[in-house]
Automatic annotation (TrEMBL), chain A:
<protein>
    <submittedName>
        <fullName>ABC transporter substrate-binding protein</fullName>
    </submittedName>
</protein>
<dbReference type="InterPro" id="IPR050490">
    <property type="entry name" value="Bact_solute-bd_prot1"/>
</dbReference>
<dbReference type="Pfam" id="PF13416">
    <property type="entry name" value="SBP_bac_8"/>
</dbReference>
<feature type="signal peptide">
    <location>
        <begin position="1"/>
        <end position="22"/>
    </location>
</feature>
<dbReference type="InterPro" id="IPR006059">
    <property type="entry name" value="SBP"/>
</dbReference>
<keyword id="KW-0732">Signal</keyword>
Automatic annotation (TrEMBL), chain B:
<keyword id="KW-1003">Cell membrane</keyword>
<feature type="transmembrane region" description="Helical">
    <location>
        <begin position="16"/>
        <end position="35"/>
    </location>
</feature>
<keyword id="KW-1133">Transmembrane helix</keyword>
<keyword id="KW-0812">Transmembrane</keyword>
<feature type="domain" description="ABC transmembrane type-1">
    <location>
        <begin position="74"/>
        <end position="289"/>
    </location>
</feature>
<feature type="transmembrane region" description="Helical">
    <location>
        <begin position="215"/>
        <end position="235"/>
    </location>
</feature>
<protein>
    <submittedName>
        <fullName>Lactose ABC transporter permease</fullName>
    </submittedName>
</protein>
<feature type="transmembrane region" description="Helical">
    <location>
        <begin position="112"/>
        <end position="133"/>
    </location>
</feature>
<keyword id="KW-0472">Membrane</keyword>
Amino acid sequence: MKKTFALLLMCMLILSACGANGGNKNTADTGNAGGNTEAAKEITIWAWDPAFNIAALEVAKAQYTAANPDVKINIVEYAQNDIIQKLNTGLNSGTTKGLPNIVLIEDYRSQGFLQSYKDSFYDLSNSIKGADFADYKSGPTSLDGKQYGIPFDSGVTGLYVRTDYLEQAGYKLSDLQDITWNDYIEIGKKVKDKTGKALITLDPNDLGLIRMMIQSAGSWYLTEDGKTPNIADNAALKEAFEVYKNLTDSNVANVHADWSQFVAALNNGDVASVPTGNWITPSITAAADQSGKWAVAPLPKLAGNDKSVHASNLGGSSWYVMNVDGKETAADFMAKTFGADTEMYQKLLTDIGVIGTFKAAASGEAYGQANEFFGGQKVVSDFAAWTEQIPSVNYGVHTYAIEDILIVEMQNYLNGKAIDKVLSDAQAQAESQIK
Amino acid sequence: MKSANATLHSRRRSGLTGWSFVLISVILIVIFYFYPMVEALILSFQTGTGTNLVFTGLDNYKRLFQDATFITSVKNTFIYLLVQVPVMIVLALFISVLLNDSKLKFKGFFRTAIFLPCVTSLVAYSIVFKYLFAGNGLVNTFLMKLHLISAPIEWITDPFWAKITIIIAITWRWTGYNMIFYLSALQNIDNSIYEAARIDGASATRQFFGITIPLLRPIILFTSITSTIGTLQLFDEVMNITKGGPGNATQTISQYIYNLSFKYSADFGYAATVSYSIVIMIILLSFLQFKVAGEKNG
C-alpha cells in the first residue's frame, strides 16, 4: 500500500514537472510571434509608457491594420528596465525565441545594443530614409552606414518658465530668448530674492542637465568614435560642471530624489523654471490651475563655447526591428506608419502630445496650433524649429557607465575638489573601467 | 528463508523508491544550480559587450583591484556588514529573551508583530521607507515637530545619512526573522538549568551570559553566517530606496553586478567575475566565523 502510494506520488511529481514544462513552452510561444511560418504575419512589439509610446503604437496599429487586415499586431507593455533585461538575456542566450519583432530602445542605449549584438537587428536602409528624420537622430539609429532604427520621439529641450514668478522679479519672456547659463543664474538670484522660489530643481543622481549642456555644444562624454572617454579635455563638459556648481553655490537650486518628487516640485509651484525635454509637457499641463502661467523659452547656451546653440536633446527613443522571422512584415509596418504617414503624426500630436522627428510632419496643421496653457504660445512649432538645430553627437556605447562615474566626481567637485583634477580623475577611471 | 528473501527484496525495492525520490532533486539541483555555476565561472574569464565575448584569462580578476566603483561597492557592503549584522544579532537576541519570559502577557501578539516585517515584500517595504525618509517625509516631520532637529535631515541624499537609512531599513526587515531562531532555541533550553542557577544565587545578567549565550552559540553562529551572506547579497533595498546614490555612496556589490549587466552596455563576463568575488568573500567570512565562534562545538 505504501509502495503504491509512493509510486503514485512519484508519477504525480514527474507528471506535474512535465506539465509545468509544457506550460512554459506555451507561454514562450505566444510571446514569440515569428516562431513558425504560418504566424509570420503576426508581429509582436515591446514598448514602455502606456500614455505615450504604447498610445502611439495603438494609433499606428489602427492605421496599418485597416489597410492590411491579414496582419496581427500584438503590443506588449513592459517597463523600460524590463525590456533592457529581456533583450540582453534573450540576445545573449543565442536563441531568438521569446524576442519581439519590434522593440523600442532609448537613444542613449541604442548603440550599445547595435554594437553588442551585431546581426540581431534588421537593416532598414531599404524601407526608410534616415534623411527624412531630424539629423541628430541619425547618430544613435545607424551603424556602419546602415539605418537600423526608425527615429521616434524628439527629446528636444526647452526652458519651461513660470512667467508670473519672472514678472515679479522684473523679467519678461522676451528677456529669455537669447541668454547664457550665467544669465540664467543671475535671473534665478533675482527670482529667489523677490519670490523666495528656487530657480531649478536638481537630482544629484541624474546629470541630465549636464548632458543637455554639452550636446548643445556638439560634445559628448565620448569622442566621435563612441568608445573613447572624452572627459579631461572636454571644454564643454568643464563649463557645464562649472555652471552646475554655480547653480548650487548660488543657492537657487532645490534637490529632488526621484521622478515623483520632481513632478511635485513643478506642480506645487516650488520652482520658477525647468530646463528639460518636451516630454515634460503633459506633466506640467496636468496642473490645470497653472494655465497661462507657463511659457517655453529656448534653452540657454554655454557662454564660453562658441559652438553652443539654443537647442539640445534629452532622452528620446527609436524603434528597432529584430532580425527574426516576420521582419519583413515588421519593417513594412514601421515604414508605412512612423516612416511615412504625415497625417498620423498630426494625430499623435493632438491626441497624445508626441512630437515626432519626421521632418515632413512639422508642416502639418497640428504643429502650428497655439497652446492656451502656455499663454497662447505656439509651443510645438517652436520645439519643431529647435529640433532641427540640435547638434548631432555620437552617444556611443557607454553613456550611463560614464555618467555614474561623473555623478560621483560631481559630488567631489561640489565639495571643493579642483575642476581639472575632477575631470582627469573621471577620465582615468573611465579609461580603466570601459573595456 | 523465503520470507527473509522477500524482506530483503522489498527492502531493496523501497531503497530504490527512496533513491528515485532523491534523484529528482539531485538532477534538478545539478541542472539549475551547478551547471549555471560552472557556466558563470567560465563566463568570468571572458570580456566584451553583449555577445562579443573573448577569453581574456585573469584580466577580469585583475581589473577588480583597479576598479574604483567595485572597491567603493565592497567598502559600502562591509560598512553595512560591520554595523548592521552585530546590531541586528544583539537586538534579536535581546528581544527573544524578553519574549521568552513566561510571565509575559500577549506573547503571541508581540511575536507576530516583530516577525511581521519579514513577510512583507522587499520592494514594497523599501518604497515605504523611501517615502518615510524623504526630505519632507514622516520621519523628518516627526523629528521637527518634536524640536529634536531644526532642519530636515537628508536621509536619502546625504552620503552618510543614506547609509544610516539603509541600515535602519534592513534591521527593521530582518531582526524578527533572526529572533524566531533564537526563540525556538531558547525553548529547547531546559528550565531546570536556570532553576539551578537561581538557587545558586546567579543574577539575571549572570544567567544570560553564563547560560543563555553559551547554549545559543550554534544558533548565533548560524544567524550571523546567514546574515553575513544576506548582507553581501544586499540588493532590493538599495536599488529601491537610494538607487545606490548619492553618487555611489550606498551602492552594493550586487547592485554593481546589476549595473554592469543591464544599466551599462552589457558586460556579462565582468559581471560574472564580480559575482564570483562575492562567492570568495562569503567562503572566507564563513570560515572565519566558524573559527571564531564554532570551534568549541566541533
